[in-house]
Design goal:
Layout lengths: L5 H16 L2 H26 L4 H18 L14 E4 L5 H11 L39 H15 L5 E6 L6 H12 L5 E7 L2 E2 L2 E2 H5 L4 H7 L3 E6 L3 H7 L9 E6 L22 H10 L2
Parallel strand pairs: 1-2, 2-3, 3-7, 6-7
Antiparallel strand pairs: 4-5
Helix pairs in contact: 1-2, 2-3, 2-4, 2-10, 3-4, 5-6
Length: about 290
Amino acid sequence: MLTTDPQQVEDWRELRARLTASAPAERSQLLSDTARRTRRSVVRMISSAGQGHIGGDLSVTDILTTLFAYTLRIDPAQPDLAGRDRFILSKGHCAAALYSTLAFSGYFSPASLSTFMAPLSELNGHPNRNKIPGVETNTGPLGHGLPVAVGQAVAAKLTRSGARVFVVMGDGEMQEGSNWEALMAASHFGLDNLVAIVDRNRLQQGARTEDTNALDPLDERLAAFGCEVREIDGHDYDALIAAFAPSTTGKPVAIVANTTKGKGISFVEDRVEWHHKVPSPEQVALALEELA
């Protein structure tokens, strides 16, 4: 089991304090700088490992950055703190972005990121709660994260902890029936402490979502299942912060976060082949230059 990095925790606390005190323009710049660092880390990790899911990692980065740096009620120095907010990355194949976010928040040392997907590394291809602090449940099989989040939201209600539960799903993952069953349950139980975020980059392995099994009108479908729906630009920090606010209707919140797969790297953006592809050394250099 990896352990907390005290210096990184202090850096995270300083960043959060600055974000809390900043005007919106400065706050967005700080979040952008933090996300850029994560994206550079993702590129290096996948290059070193020779495998990974770079497109989806980069599309979800701004969502993860905003949650961990600004929104979630957490303390990385106390990963098991009672009453903490929970976060689940249902699209667990995009673990590199989550690992980088957790490391830069202080859950473990960023030096461990160099072991990504190496033999016997805690940082394998999908998050494991028994090895990595800050991971609330093992994920990877698509369609499982939201049902677990519903259970955690029910538990928070029963214990009156005040915890909110956030879960990020891929949009291709919304073709899984288990997600819609979970949304029905969330609506039935009035889980206004649940926030379901769809990383709507419109690409999945091998094709576009709308060519595979069309999801639109996704907002109307989510509303029909009893959600308070918010559709935003998933790379706009002000929009993300506003969307992560508590429910105003007593319903579960569902966020359609419109994103670009491969965000930040010109030759990766909106390209289906980069769902699961490793950049060459020349492409790594170009990507890091664009993310400088």
